[in-house]
Structures are given as structure tokens and as C-alpha cells.
Amino acid sequence: MESTVLSLYQKYGGQATVATLVDSFYTKVLADPRIKHFFSQTDMERQRRHQTAFISQVLGGPQDYKGLDMRKAHARLNLNESHFGAVAEHLQLTLSEAGVEPADLETIMAAVASLKPEVLNQ
């Protein structure tokens, strides 16, 4: 599994590509009335840096993510299934638009789904 994940980071262009994906992802998120309010008090430059580091790490890139764990980062937000689904929807669309192959997209989205209990504090 580790080598497959690492190959995804390398396969899709590494850090520069991940940063571009994160920008596209947050453009969608911040335009979505279902979830944009969660970011109204957020320093988005900092958020983008954290998200770029986190996604890079998830894809097998550098282990540079220094943010809170998922449970702590989302604890105060009172998120539900609908919120998680909206974010996942935007991520999947962003990756698909960037040309991520269906099999790789499935692998990435499965990793995202595995984080749901922590993000929703279940």
C-alpha cells in the first residue's frame, strides 16, 4: 500500500500539483453555501498550507504536516454527514478535473472516507 500511495504523489506531479489542487478545492468549498461558513474566521493562506502538507503526506509525499490531528482540528465545528459529504464531493470533483485516473481516485477517496469518524468526532 505504501508504495502505491507514494507513486500517487509522484505520478501526479508532487508538491506543485498538490498546491494547485488545494487552491482549486478551496475555490469550490468557499463557494458552497452548505459549508463555506465553517471557513469565515479561517486564515485561508495558513489553511491552504496545512491542507497541502496534509494531502502531500496522505499521498506518500513529504511527512511535513504539523497541524492538529483530525479529531482535534474539527472538534469545535459540530460537523455532520452532510458537511463531510460536501467536502468529499468537492475533493473528488477537483481530482477528477485534474485528470486523476479513476482507480487512483477510488484509492484516494477511500483514504478520505477512512478519516470520517475522526473528522465527525464519532
Characteristics:
Globin-like; 122 residues; mainly alpha; 66% helix; 7 helices; single chain
Whole-Å distance between the termini? Answer: 26 Å
| SSE class | mainly alpha
Number of domain units? 1
Proportion in helices: 55-70%
CATH class: Mainly Alpha
Catalogue the unreliable spans.
none
Describe the structure.
With 122 residues, the protein is mainly alpha-helical. It has a single domain, classed as Orthogonal Bundle (Globin-like), CATH 1.10.490.10. The protein is 66% helix and 0% strand. The chain is built from 7 helices and no strands. The longest helix is centred in the first third of the chain and has 17 residues, at 14-30. It is globular, with a radius of gyration of 14 Å.
List the helices and strands and how they pair.
Elements: H1 2-11, H2 14-30, H3 44-58, H4 70-74, H5 81-97, H6 102-114, H7 116-119
Helix pairs in contact: 2-3, 2-5, 5-6
Summarize, please:
This protein has helices at 2-11, 14-30, 44-58, 70-74, 81-97, 102-114, 116-119. With 122 residues, the protein is mainly alpha-helical.
